[in-house]
Amino acid sequence: MNRGNRTVRAMLAVGGMAVALAVAGCAGNAGAQSPRSNNVANDGPLPAEAPTPTAAAPAQAPGAPVVNGPASLIKKTIPKMGSVVTDKDGHVLYRFDKDTKQPAKSNCEGTCAKVWPPVLTLGIPVVDGVDPTLVDSVVRADGTMQVTISGWPVYTYIGDKKPLAWTGQGVGGTWWVIAPDGKKNLTCVPTATPKAVPPPADTAAPTANPTEGGGGGNGY
User: Fold this and answer.
1) Do 189 and 101 belong to one domain?
2) Largest pairwise CA distance in the chain
3) Phi and psi (nearest 5°) for 74?
4) How confident is the model over 33-80, as pLDDT tens digits?
């Protein structure tokens, strides 16, 4: 009788082990499929997942120009030069040979940008006659957004004293009226290389960085 009891107890023990192993196997599979259920059960609630970071334009530097809305790009045809691009006030736009288009980058900063003000935008530029697929913007060093045409940053010129003037053509051998397709408008090229006009009086002093603003007439 005792021997029989021992046999029964041994059989029950083996059966219990088999059940325990089977349960452990299911738990393991469930954990592989849904590890969160184990964490919640054993370690408490999971912390909320951090959102995926997204790229953002840098904050504007103190003293950066205030931009109140989208820029305007208008295709116009003018005597001698043919097709040009102007802003909403009729200022002819230029591109700078020392900039780059791939990637788009302006190399006109400091005093240079006082003589050649970058065309800035807040939002998507408004176009009239210019292919919108060629228009974009690039972040400047001060955090503002400068309009580009076919990758080239665009500028106005303080030497142009009236709408549709293009006295900046060929300045320093590096500044050119930009065509609506982003190429240089070389319809009319000066026979001599002109120099840029002096910067405004409050910016006439040399900058701390002698290389700032790239090249061109008068150093910009």
Assistant:
1) yes
2) 124
3) -125, 125
4) 433 434 434 444 444 444 444 344 556 666 677 888 999 999 999 999
